Amino acid sequence: MAATDNGDTIYFNPSQSNDSSYLYLYDSRRGNAEVFNMSLAEFIAKWALGKLQSQVLETPDNKEFKPC
Fold it and tell me: In 3D, which of 14, 17, 16 has the Cα closest to residue 43?
């Protein structure tokens, strides 16, 4: 489990397979929820690159980020 500065929470539910897992995002202010079926690494990479389609998490302002 993780939490943002705004009080939103992220729950990670690993699967038996290494290929994917479920990540649940809960918006504490509006009560919205989102579910993503992907690995934790893919979730973080998409978010960091601004490619994650989410109504809960904002895209980071990190123009300096360059993937390896």
Answer: 14
**Which residues, 6 or more positions from 18, have their beta carbon under 8 angstroms from its beta carbon?**
39
Structural domain contains residue 8? yes
Structure token digits, residue 64: 């300096």
pTM to 2 decimals? Answer: 0.68
Give a yes or no: residue 56 inside a domain: no
Is 21 inside any structural domain? yes
Domain count, the chain: 1
Each residue's pLDDT tens digit, 1-60: 777 777 778 888 877 766 668 888 888 888 888 999 988 888 888 988 888 888 887 766
Q: Please list the residues that pair with 14 across neighbouring strands.
A: 21
